[in-house]
Amino acid sequence: MARPILVANWKSYPNSLFEAKSLLNQLARQSRLYKKFNFSIAPPLVYFESVARSGFALASQDMEMTDILKSFGTKFVIVGHSDRRAKGETEEIINRKVKIALRAGIIPLLCIGELFSDRDGEHFEFLRSQLRLALAGVKNSKIIVAYEPVWAIGKSAKGAISPDELSQTVIFIKKVLSDILGRKIANQISVLYGGSVEPANAEALMRDTNIRGFLVGHASLDAKKFKTIAESML
Ligand code: 13P
Question: In angstroms, what is the span from residue 81 Cα to ligand 1's centroid?
Answer without folding.
Answer: 9
